[in-house]
Prior knowledge:
CATH superfamily: P-loop containing nucleotide triphosphate hydrolases
Number of domains: 1
CATH topology: Rossmann fold
Helix content: 40-55%
Amino acid sequence: QLDDDEVHIDILDTAGQEDYAAIRDNYFRSGEGFLCVFSVSEMESFDAIHEFREQILRVKNDDKVPFILVANKFDLDQNQHRVSMDKAQELANSWNVPLYQTSAKTNFNVQQVFGIYIHSFII
């Protein structure tokens, strides 16, 4: 429940696993908005979100699909970051989407991002 509204969302967290490739298109097709989450400690996850976004745009056949870019694991020491916030912000700007920083471990900004997602794309 968010504010006075009951909301239901589906979350497909593939963590880049190819096992989910068969069902991914179905989720992409029915999705109303997408959180593209990458780990600040893994450049591979940052690189992978490009492919996910392209797949979503292809399946939706629409270049105006709403996205939110999320930099996760923000609780890690700066020396463990492999993706700079400048690079992430540059990508967010090129996609014309907002960028948020979160930590699933400490719950930093997690509820806020889901709240923003729901208010922006669902309600």
